[in-house]
């Protein structure tokens, strides 16, 4: 059952990939189209939607079979949560597509969902037993609702990105073009990180170092990427003998600081290489390369989709990530609120989208300003998923 | 007229909010919630056994001043004030002031051997389940309650006391 | 061209009350908090402050017993020291953070009142016939030429009613409206938030909140702190279960985690008692059994507004120690004694005139700064005894100092010695006693907030004005959001009635 489950996930992943390509054809492929523009994009858009829906069904199959195999809702660790978040994004996209029939949202939303699911694959995917705190019906209720809310909000990011690519003036370099490229670069470095991690894992790369931490404890760390930065005064123990080239600066404390820094550096370098390659091929900014394909996109409609996704997602997020979270925390941790980092970042996300709505409704922040806010909102959600789980340790670091 | 009403409504709303927030801040940052029994309260009655197994009831001391001290052998400041307490006890016991030293849930043996070593003459009571300690809202020890002849707490102190201070306190509760 | 400029419909074109008055200090404070701009600033400041609080762990999450004055510097270096010096280690309980939350609450009240009242009035007394320029300046505006009465107002009315519009007619003009209630959404959700904040504030009022720690040893009955001495709890045992490391399902994950075992269950089998009748402190309580309940994580024991949670444990705490008294030379034992570490006897009688006197007992032994033997606490973490071993050969006894893995003879060489045999241990449950009388208001506040947000976000307030002018029919329309939905509705209505589809005037302007 567990094997079937992971196979279904692979299939879903590749179908999503195909769907993205089909959405790209619906927008880019106008040069070799035989039919007129509207029919072409309608036809290919329908295919894109169908593929996305089929992929979603496969992933739903993964979810159900894994649930059966594990005996509990598969949302209990980082691998499971991140995959589910990707699935929630696809689900949100399907709904938005049914309302607005917008292919260009698919072109941006599906690849983001793919990156999210790919990122999930970096985490250990074994079926884990539930620790006592997680043994509750609220596990499935709280986590799925929160992830669905985040998935819908992620669609507003996709729409915001479309808006920016469509409208930012690419004729000359500006702050807007720089930050837009920065967003592209971040997405690309995530891809690079996944490729590197899976590549070295497939090659069986591993090296272990030993060092004394600030509590005078002997600690060993395992590197699955070649060690560029090693722990202070660390000694090589076993495995591949490369590196470390330099020691992590002494002010970086914490047991895994050097290891985390190493991962970060690999992501940055990998991202730079991949981004550089793409720029070399395109010979212009990525935003500028995509822009022509979007010239017929109705920017006002995209702006509305972006806002609509927030309008739909904000209540779902609040319900799942704050209200259900509080009900569960009252039962499991004796208090509904305890300023745990994950809790705080859910509040930060809530406050951010509250500010977004007030800026939009009362101060008229629409169009580009609103689109940038949608991008920042997604950055906050990803920070909560990535940084808070991996860097800041708290009650939620189960993985 | 309309304008005046509006001002009244606004003032009322702001006043309510400021008072509520002010009170919250007061209780959170300034209020002293260190115990249940405070100066001015009637000292709650209790019955405990002393080191020899005799029952001692607080109410039987009505008409006398009671120097009620909470202590333990692991508490250094408690130990420090013991010799002075003993000295003053012998001075004031004929003047109607009694010391009751409640040991906070240590084994009888530990308390007894400590009392023998320090040659203490005042009664030491054993609060084996922390019952009286909790009832009086005693947190970190030592804590001393000064109870007057009418059974009213006139002072609560959490400091380790010197001989002069004990003398002064005994005078305060001398009937 | 003036008519091309679209009308700002946010507050129905009417000025907010607060902006028209500016006199006393009360009005000045009021106007300050009435501003949405100020409200957004408060939200942003709260957001940034909250985020800063997660950079390093808050004081409540650093390891217990560690000293915060050095912990932050030791763990996080200069930045940690700075964090501590700025007071960020206790950010969420700081006066300025609480002041920000209070400011948010005030802003919610004032800004909502200032907007709700005029909006309510404006929407209540809407005229059916609007001025021509009002219609022209709506986003969707269209003119249809009609000869005679081909397009009947009644058919438009019916088409709109079929779309669930509430249609009013006056002098051959129409005004259709639906989902006005969604405009109240923001105010409803603000009421919910205000209730929630009031709930948070109530916590600081006496008697609203109880939070106590209760350590309960197996077999013991303890008064439950915070219940005003009304309840007692007994532990019938603490259970710690782990997953089977060879479980087919979880084997891989447990191996990969590197942990020796993964915990499956923490449980205290408890019995709840109520104290009946009057009682003087210090006397034994008269207990009535209320219920038995296995307290597990996620399954607290609930009674009378209280809840008791399983949060911690200590395994194998010393309970009693067993020794034998042996002749050192012959290794022969003259008897055995078991000492209850919570209440040792004064004397242990062995056979044939042998006995052991306990001269002193230190449950948590150490030497103090004066070099005297003393105890650190009352918990027998490191029990030590001074014993007097009485035997027929030594009727006055031989003194021995006995501690864990230690045997001293302070008064000279002894003939007898105490040999440690074994210990008896018990598990201790770490429980938390909670009572939170603010939960109901928080729940109501949260529910109202959700209703308000959904009401405001999932419905849209749509209005359509139809005006007859000579042989033209004018149609204009407005919605507070989801213009795409409105457009589709207009398409459907115009299709049915033969009217011209109104033009999106903002789109006309924006095209390039």
Automatic annotation (TrEMBL), chain A:
Instruction: List residues of the Cytochrome c assembly protein domain.
Output: 76-198, 273-396
Keyword Transmembrane helix listed: yes
Q: Which residues cross the membrane?
A: 6-28, 49-69, 81-100, 105-123, 143-165, 177-200, 264-282, 309-331, 343-359, 371-392
Q: Which GO terms describe its molecular function?
A: heme binding
The family database entries (InterPro entries) matched by this protein are listed as:
Cyt_c_assembly, Cyt_c_biogenesis_CcsA, Cyt_c_biogenesis_CcsA/CcmC
Q: Could you tell me the membrane topology recorded for this protein?
A: Multi-pass membrane protein
**Domain of life according to the entry:** Bacteria
Instruction: Note whether Lipid metabolism occurs among the keywords.
Output: no
| Subcellular locations according to the entry | Membrane
One GO CC term, this protein: plasma membrane
The signal peptide stretch is none
Q: Name one GO biological process term.
A: cytochrome complex assembly
Q: Which UniProt keywords apply?
A: Cytochrome c-type biogenesis, Membrane, Transmembrane, Transmembrane helix
Q: What's the protein here called?
A: Cytochrome C biogenesis protein
The major lineage groups are: Bacteria, Bacillati, Bacillota, Bacilli, Bacillales
Automatic annotation (TrEMBL), chain B:
Q: Sorted alphabetically, which PROSITE patterns does this protein's record hold?
A: THIOREDOXIN_1 (PS00194), THIOREDOXIN_2 (PS51352)
* CDD domains assigned to the protein according to its UniProt record, in alphabetical order: TlpA_like_family
Which segment of the chain is annotated as a signal peptide?
none
Which stretches make up the Thioredoxin domain? 37-175
Q: Name one GO cellular component term.
A: cell envelope
Q: What GO molecular function terms would the record report?
A: antioxidant activity; oxidoreductase activity
**InterPro entries hit by this protein:** AhpC/TSA, Thioredoxin-like_sf, Thioredoxin_CS, Thioredoxin_domain, Thioredoxin_ResA/DsbE_sf
**Which biological process annotations from GO are given for this protein?**
cytochrome complex assembly
Question: Chief localization class?
Answer: other
- Locate the transmembrane regions by residue number: 7-26
Tell me the protein's name. Thiol-disulfide oxidoreductase
Which species does the entry assign this protein to? Answer: Guptibacillus hwajinpoensis
């Amino acid at each position: 059952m567990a094997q079937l489950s992971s196979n279904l996930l692979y299939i879903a992943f590749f179908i999503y990939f195909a769907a993205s390509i089909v959405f790209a054809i619906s927008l880019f492929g106008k040069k070799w189209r035989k039919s007129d523009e509207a029919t072409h994009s309608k036809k290919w858009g329908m295919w894109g939607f169908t593929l996305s829906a089929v992929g979603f069904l496969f992933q739903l199959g993964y979810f159900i079979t894994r649930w059966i195999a594990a005996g509990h809702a598969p949302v209990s660790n980082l691998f499971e949560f991140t995959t589910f978040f990707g699935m929630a994004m696809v689900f949100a996209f399907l709904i938005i597509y049914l309302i607005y029939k917008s292919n260009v949202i698919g072109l941006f939303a599906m690849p983001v969902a793919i990156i999210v699911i790919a990122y999930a694959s970096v985490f250990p995917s074994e079926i884990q037993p539930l620790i006592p705190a997680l043994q509750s019906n609220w596990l499935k209720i709280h986590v799925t609702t929160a992830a669905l809310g985040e998935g819908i909000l992620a669609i507003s990011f996709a729409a915001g990105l479309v808006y920016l690519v469509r409208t930012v003036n690419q004729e000359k370099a500006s702050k807007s073009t720089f930050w837009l490229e920065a967003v592209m670069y971040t997405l690309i470095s995530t891809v690079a990180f996944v490729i590197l991690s899976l590549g070295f894992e497939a090659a069986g790369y591993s090296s272990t170092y030993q060092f004394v931490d600030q509590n005078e404890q002997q600690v060993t760390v395992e590197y699955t990427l070649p060690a560029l930065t090693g722990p202070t005064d660390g000694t090589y123990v076993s495995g591949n003998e490369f590196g470390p080239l330099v020691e992590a600066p002494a002010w970086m404390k914490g047991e895994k600081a050097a290891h985390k820094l190493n991962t970060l550096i690999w992501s940055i370098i990998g991202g730079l290489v991949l981004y550089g390659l793409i720029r070399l091929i395109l010979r212009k900014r990525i935003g500028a390369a995509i822009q022509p394909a979007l010239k017929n996109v109705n920017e006002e409609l995209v702006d509305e989709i972006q806002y609509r996704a927030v309008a739909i997602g904000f209540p779902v997020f609040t319900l799942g990530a704050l209200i259900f979270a509080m009900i569960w925390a009252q039962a499991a941790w004796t208090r509904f609120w305890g300023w745990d980092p994950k809790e705080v970042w859910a509040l930060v996300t809530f406050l951010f989208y509250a500010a977004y709505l007030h800026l939009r409704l009362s101060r008229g922040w629409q169009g580009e300003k609103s689109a940038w806010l949608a991008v920042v909102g997604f950055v906050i959600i990803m920070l909560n998923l990535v940084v808070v789980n991996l860097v800041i340790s708290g009650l939620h670091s189960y993985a | 007229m309309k304008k005046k009403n509006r001002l009244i409504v606004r003032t009322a709303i702001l006043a309510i909010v400021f008072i509520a927030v002010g009170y919250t801040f007061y209780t959170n940052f300034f209020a002293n919630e260190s115990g249940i029994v405070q100066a001015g309260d009637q000292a709650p009655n209790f019955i405990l056994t002393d080191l020899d197994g005799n029952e001692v009831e607080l109410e039987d001391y009505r008409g006398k001043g009671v120097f009620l001290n909470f202590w333990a052998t692991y508490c250094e400041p408690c130990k420090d004030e013991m010799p002075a307490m003993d000295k003053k006890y012998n001075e004031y016991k004929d003047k109607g002031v009694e010391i009751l030293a409640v040991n906070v849930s240590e084994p009888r043996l530990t308390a007894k051997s400590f009392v023998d070593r320090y040659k203490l003459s005042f009664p030491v009571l054993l609060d084996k389940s922390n019952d009286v300690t909790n009832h009086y809202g005693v947190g970190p020890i030592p804590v001393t309650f000064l109870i007057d002849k009418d059974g009213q707490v006139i002072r609560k102190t959490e400091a380790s006391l010197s001989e002069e201070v004990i003398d002064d306190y005994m005078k305060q509760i001398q009937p | 061209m003036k008519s091309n400029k679209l009308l700002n419909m946010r507050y129905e074109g009417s000025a907010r009350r607060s902006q028209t008055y500016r006199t006393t200090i009360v009005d000045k404070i009021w106007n300050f908090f009435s501003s949405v701009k100020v409200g957004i600033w408060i939200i942003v400041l709260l957001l940034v402050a909250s985020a800063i609080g997660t950079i390093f762990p808050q004081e409540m999450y650093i390891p217990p017993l560690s000293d915060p004055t050095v912990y932050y510097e030791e763990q996080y270096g200069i930045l940690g020291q700075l964090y501590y010096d700025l007071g960020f280690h206790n950010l969420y309980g700081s006066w300025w953070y609480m002041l920000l939350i209070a400011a948010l609450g005030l802003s919610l009240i004032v800004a909502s009142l200032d907007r709700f009242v005029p909006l309510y009035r404006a929407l209540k007394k809407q005229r059916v016939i609007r001025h021509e320029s009002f219609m022209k300046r709506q986003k969707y505006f269209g003119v249809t030429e009609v000869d005679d009465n081909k397009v009947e107002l009644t058919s438009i009315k019916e088409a709109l009613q079929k779309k669930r519009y509430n249609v009013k007619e006056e002098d051959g003009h129409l005004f259709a409206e639906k989902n006005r209630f969604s405009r109240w959404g923001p105010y409803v959700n603000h009421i919910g938030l205000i209730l929630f904040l009031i709930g948070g504030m109530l916590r600081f009022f006496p008697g609203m909140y109880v939070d106590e720690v209760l350590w309960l040893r197996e077999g013991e009955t303890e008064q439950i702190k915070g219940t005003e001495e009304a309840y007692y709890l007994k532990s019938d045992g603490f259970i710690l279960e782990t997953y089977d490391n060879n479980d087919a399902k979880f084997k891989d994950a447990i191996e990969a985690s590197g942990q020796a075992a993964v915990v499956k269950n923490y449980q205290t089998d408890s019995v709840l008692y109520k104290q009946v009748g009057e009682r003087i402190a210090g006397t034994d309580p008269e207990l009535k059994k209320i219920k038995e309940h296995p307290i597990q994580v996620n399954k607290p024991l609930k009674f009378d507004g209280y809840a008791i949670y399983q949060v911690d444990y200590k395994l194998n705490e010393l309970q009693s120690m067993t020794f034998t008294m042996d002749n050192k030379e012959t290794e022969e034992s003259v008897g055995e004694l078991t000492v209850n570490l919570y209440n040792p006897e004064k004397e242990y009688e062995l056979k044939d005139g042998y006995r052991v006197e306990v001269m002193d007992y230190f449950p948590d032994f150490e030497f103090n700064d004066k070099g005297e033997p003393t105890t650190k606490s009352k918990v027998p973490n490191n029990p030590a005894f001074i014993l007097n071993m009485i035997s027929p050969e030594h009727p006055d006894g031989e003194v021995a100092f006995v501690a864990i893995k230690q045997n001293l003879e302070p008064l000279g060489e002894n003939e007898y010695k105490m040999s440690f045999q074994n210990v008896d241990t018990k598990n201790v449950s770490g429980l938390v006693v909670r009572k939170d009388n603010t939960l109901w208001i928080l729940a109501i506040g949260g529910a109202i907030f959700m209703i308000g947000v959904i009401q405001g976000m999932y419905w849209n307030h749509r209005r359509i004005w139809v005006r007859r002018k000579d042989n033209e029919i004018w149609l204009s329309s407005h919605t507070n959001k989801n213009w795409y939905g409105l457009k589709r509705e207009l398409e459907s209505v115009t299709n049915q009635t033969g009217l011209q589809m109104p033009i999106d005037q903002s789109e006309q302007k924006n095209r390039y």
